[in-house]
Known about the structure:
alpha/beta
Amino acid sequence: MSAGAAVMGADFKPGSAGPGRIAAIGEDALVEGFRLVGVSVHACTNGPEVLRAWRSLPKDTAVVVLTPRAAQALGPALSDFRSPMTVVLPS
């Protein structure tokens, strides 16, 4: 089973419509590896870039992996009930 299948479920096939996209936002060194399993990576160096990346996420984004600095930059935007589920990497 591929890493993508493990994340999305056993029936997931890369390139197919799945339950939603996964994205990662934050410092390049911390998020770049997620690209290897098909995650949409948004490398950002400051708060305004993080906000732009967050606002540009496709509507079908289900999960967003954030670095601690990216989560801090998003602040109240994370509490919007319409936002995708977020996971913050440990610091």
